[in-house]
Amino acid sequence: MGRFHGLIGIVLILGIAFLFSNNRSKINYRLVFSGIALQVLIGILVFKVPPVTWFFQQVGHAMGKLEAFARQGAAFVYGGIGVSQPPTGTIADYASGGFVFAFNVTATIILVCVLVAVLYHFGIMQRIVAVIARAMNIIMRVSGAEALSNVASAFVGQVEAQVMIRPYLSSMTKSELLASMSGSLACIAGGILVVYANMGFQAGMDIAPFLITASLMAAPGALVISKIVFPETEESVTMGRVKMEVKSNYTNVIDAISHGAGDGFKIAMNVIAMLIGFIALIALLDWCLIHIGHIFNPHFDLSLDWIFGKIFTPMAWAMGVPADDVSKVATLLGQKLTINEFVAFKSLTTHKIDVVSPKAVAIVTIAIAGFANFSSVGMQIGGIGELAPDRRSDLAKLGLKALLCGTLASYLSATIAGILLG
């Protein structure tokens, strides 16, 4: 079927969402179709309009520069361990230095968090988010609160995005709450996006344009899926209006830099701890599974990757992944959902799971570029629950629905991109 094979995936993804809908008669099909149209428009602009394509290529190159700048800070702290030392004691091009994940990746996260904090302090971040959210509010006719949180999730972390709508959390409808949670799980924060882009650069893979596309398409995609799964039946207090508090919480720019660096460090240490824990646990489980497999066949090496490859194969095939890469992409989809996206990107960019076709690389990059995994659900319930304690029970009830919606939203974006790329 070639290019339009992905239409099967779109039907499958929307069909799964429809199957899990709690009120099929109330689904707003205008919202659904306008959201999908917005995703298609974003994809066309990024992939098919040369000036826009060129712009996002330049953004991707800028991400590489950020990693080079972060190396200079890492070089001062870690010396010759994490990056190459300048041979003459002068400033050198650290982009050509060695790569140690714990040092280089965490340095990039800290730098990006500092930049986001500075932009937030000057009100630039809030204004960008408000403008995009207002456009989405007009096109899709969603409420201001859910539009703001979904758009904000493309720039900041999944809990930080909810801080921007904190005044509305207690009064949000359950449908709005699910849409906000789904958007945060489908999107990927700017700091982490830069990290994945640079992991790709280290492996000679230019996946930055696909990551940016995933981030842009995730917000309308999450709203489409969540509004099918949980249609709006209540009256929203922010329907038809988008209002954001622009005031900074920082005393001055130095305070913003300090808080940004501190927040970045916490995120970086959490990433390191999470990866050590999960990868070690995977090694343990694989050891157990191999021995179980050998009971039945001495030559059968059963593993989590093998299991994921079988379970997610139908979805990978329906999304339009070329036949030779279907099982590999399926494995990465499984890693992302059940473990986390860091492990999936590590497998992709280190060629542990070697996806060959450019189209398959594009589809899987967009499909796994999101926070939708089981551990993130716990983070959301805990984090948003602290912002709005009275909604904790609702958050717990909606947690798995949000995971489903965030996952399907990423798959929808990836499938549309696959169709456009041919």
TrEMBL record:
Keyword Disulfide bond: no
Transmembrane segments: 6-22, 29-47, 99-120, 177-201, 207-230, 271-296, 360-381, 402-421
Membrane topology: Multi-pass membrane protein
Gene Ontology molecular function: any one: nucleoside transmembrane transporter activity
Gene Ontology cellular component list: plasma membrane
Pfam families assigned to the protein according to its UniProt record, in alphabetical order: Gate, Nucleos_tra2_C, Nucleos_tra2_N
Origin: domain of life: Bacteria
Every Concentrative nucleoside transporter N-terminal domain range: 8-80
Keywords attached to this entry: Cell membrane, Membrane, Transmembrane, Transmembrane helix
All residue ranges annotated as the Nucleoside transporter/FeoB GTPase Gate domain in the record: 103-199
Residue ranges annotated for the Concentrative nucleoside transporter C-terminal domain, each copy included: 211-418
Keyword Chaperone applies: no
Annotated InterPro entries: C_nuclsd_transpt, CNT_C_dom, CNT_N_dom, Gate_dom
Compartments where found: Cell membrane
PANTHER family the UniProt entry points to: SODIUM/NUCLEOSIDE COTRANSPORTER, SOLUTE CARRIER FAMILY 28 MEMBER 3
Family: Belongs to the concentrative nucleoside transporter (CNT) (TC 2.A.41) family.
Protein name, as recorded: Concentrative nucleoside transporter, CNT family
Source organism of this protein record: Chitinophaga jiangningensis
